[in-house]
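Q: Entry one of two.
A:
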Amino acid sequence: MNRRQFLSYSATLTATAAASWFGYQHLNRPPTITLHKIGLPLAHLLRDKQIPTTATQAHHCETLILGSGAAALSSAWHFSRNGYHNYMIAEGFERNGNNAGFTSGSLKAPTGAHYLAQPSAESAHVRQMLADLGILQGYDKQGNPIYREQDLVFAPDERVFAHGKWHDGLLPEHDADTKRFFQFIQTINHLRGSDGKKIFAIPIIHSSQDVQWRKLDTLTFAAWLKQQHYQSPTLLWYLDYCCRDDYGQGIEQVSAFAGLHYFAGRGNDHAAVLTWEDGLNHISEQLRQFIQLKPQKTLPNTQNLVFRQPESFPYVAVQIDENSDNVRVLLRHTETGDTRLIHAQNVICAMPLMIAKYIFSQPENYGLHTFRLPDYAPWLVSNFVLHSFPTEPAHTELAWDNVVYGSRGLGYVVATHQQIRVAKPSQTAFTAYTALNHDTPQAIRAWLLNAQPRDVLPFAAQDLLAVYGKRFWQHVSHVEISARAHAMSVPSVGYLSAPLLQKIQTHQSRILFAHSDMSSYSVFEEAAFWGVEAAKKILAKQ
């Protein structure tokens, strides 16, 4: 399926979804819809320098972590497990960042990432973290990790809807091209370069520098596939789906190195993923408990902030100025607008680089105004709260991950799949994922800025309506849509040698950067790695 066919299919499916929705509205009471535009309007006020910078009070602290996503909480985890507790967290725009979750009564669902692949040996930091949380319970005689059964995805784990029926797995057929591609992946899974390192490793910084393989970063995945004479529509759709799922952009946009890294980076052969009803929000909340993080509603009036146990505050950084004595960080309360000035000895900047660019008083010192930022992909994460389950075709069973072949959506995940019950629960949530790449990211962000809930709904619901038709709306009580206009950085061609990332990765001062942006690859292991590395550098100075 080429790009023209993709766009035509997307337009048809969107029109069908809209017609189904508006037809249903005339006959039934429609469900409520909530659209959250994550970070707005505060992020745009910050970008446009429209936020007052007068502080009501000044404070001093030893270590300040900016952000509460995977990188920030990984820094905090490493601090706490090494006996260091004198730090505070400014939560940022959203609690837990891209690991955030949604709660409706007793129902939980993800509004960000929904699973964690079993980490490879190179991601020792994540394995240790999972061990601390009781998820990784030990190793077998061959050195393979043993995970708690309840944390591994239950069967059936995935299925694909193609040609009017469901198929097990995410490939409706295994043709000659598909078999050839996965035989190649088996070959490179544990291949090492001339420097002895794995060609593809997670964290990416541990990958081989072998020039022969790094050349893959000079062309798109689509171009490489064409060079290798892969022509199967099924395979090309599947590879495009995988890239959109992890990178937010398809095979025409991502680097060939990134495309192969998706399959070979961990070296896991058909290993079950780790997942929970609220996705990686579960991990984030478990980390908060592990470090005994104490949430506070506002900063105290005390000038010197000293913490026996770490504390978190609902503030976002709006200005950062580093000098020889400390780092001056202006924090703004996300609800009240209360503004405080923090003089910190150390700062971990665990926020996207595109935000950091606008709040550093001298961004050129860090390469933020000197070099090109990563490209960012817009996403929708949409929770359809159901008061009853739609009927599945005969001889089929609802899976955890449900994907529609040929769709521009990424399918939907069943939040209650991990619950062990004799019968289905009374309610559930189907979480639909959509990488909005039917136009340029800039054009989509411009559209999202003024989009109303019913403008976004057809994109959110396209896969569900393709499977269940308009009768699906009979089961829906509420729709909760999270629009992430800059959801993830994209590993475009040349990302491995991007000057900004190389500068940020090696930067050392009172400010330390920690975010998956530093790998241009938005997965938990990468964010956790940079978070731990930042914490290590601060502990080395203690």
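Q: Entry two of two.
A:
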Amino acid sequence: MPYSNDVLAAKQLLEANGPSWANINPEHVARMRAQNRFKTGLDIAKYTAKIMREDMANYDADTAQYTQSLGCWHGFIGQQKMIAIKKHFGSTKRRYLYLSGWMVAALRSEFGPLPDQSMHEKTSVSSLIEELYTFLRQADSWELNHLFRDLEEANNAGDSTRAKDLESKIDNHETHIVPIIADIDAGFGNPEATYLLAKKMIEAGACCIQLENQVSDEKQCGHQDGKVTVPHADFIAKINAVRYAFLELGVDDGVIVARTDSLGAGLTQKIAVTKEPGDLGDQYNSFIEGDEITSAEAIENGDVVIKQGGKLVKPKRLASGLYEFKKGSGEDRVVLDCITSLQNGADLLWIETEKPHVGQIAAMVNRIRDVVPDAKLVYNNSPSFNWTLNFRQQVFDAWKEEGKDVSAYERAALMSAEYDETELGQLADEWTRNFQRDAAREAGIFHHLITLPTYHTAALSTDNLAKGYFGDEGMLAYVAGVQRKELRQGIATVKHQDMAGSNIGDDHKEFFAGEAALKAGGKDNTMNQFG
């Protein structure tokens, strides 16, 4: 509804309630309503789920329409990302946020910094979703507040042309509320526990939940060793649990991302239940390493025996009670995982890889698409990869295969700065620049994300500031390295009180108390030094 219509509706409501409501200004009512578009997390989840579904359909029609996100560990970080995106690109279209379980564990746990092993409080995940959307809603309120102030100024000056333009901007305001892909790890327990946490996450605003096929109580970071996967039936039960949570809460378009860690996982905790040769449990068990046995005498105390391809096999069992998968079976298990997940309720896939390689990803996706033609991926452009070294080695290997002379380069030392300006180094940077576009086109990647970018940017910027401030630069380290750059790049946080809501609060004070309002934004506010 246009702002002018909202003002009229508020005026009619106030008049209907008689003189006792005469102190209430209909324009102020309309302003506050516009600045609080989303009332609940479920409002947000329903709104963003539709956006994500539309984006998925657009990607199916044109792979250039892939989506992106950056990981967040605090509401302010997510807010500033969306403000920056609107500032630089004019729209948040196809840009999301990612909530990383890794960063929750490392930065938000009451136990202190933890590794990515699901040891943090599970409610800290849903709390962060709520926090992120609180900050994004405040970004809407902050941006609209400036437009409303400008509109009031234009109306007071009798500038009808500018007032009309500002009303149009208000009516067509694009919200900072975007989809969040939220990491539920391996579900933090059994399917009931997964369902309960999924509900909390959806109620906080999540329209998309990412679930991985590791054992919940043995969960490891996707880029660490020792990963243990579960049989497909166990994983499907958790997919079902998340879907029921979406449907119970009325988020019918909710999106489930099924992640497989099988490429790097060499262990399983369970032997799958199987009823007949070739069923899903039998396929899972076919990948378990074991020794064929021909007589009962070969079975020792505590041994387990299964059938593989009609033969009796004794699986190799470790001291931990876990079973090993056959070496080299990772890609086949990934393909089976992905097909099974898509056929049992998942919407998108996540294949955790050990390196960013378009060809490797495409090879698996093409096999999946032979069965499920519209299969699409969410892909982790992970800081756990050494991107510089990986792409320089990929160029090196490609050149060597082409017969090009690579004697000027040492493959194992390609990370060295001496290669930065070489032909190989520059081509590797170009491959890195094009990775997301190429992978979206050739490997079915609908969504590219960086899991924990601000973990690294915060550490890097803090290191630079500390080095200068506590060294010879003193205060100049902050002024030249931070504030001056904020001013010249037009970063709104330079007026930090305004960003935190000072002007919004001043306006509310005036709404509530009129001329008696004690406001903070007067002539003596030092924020005015920034223009």
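A: Comment on entry two: Residues 123-156 form the longest helix (34 residues). Residues 41-288+325-459 form a domain with the TIM Barrel fold (CATH 3.20.20.60).
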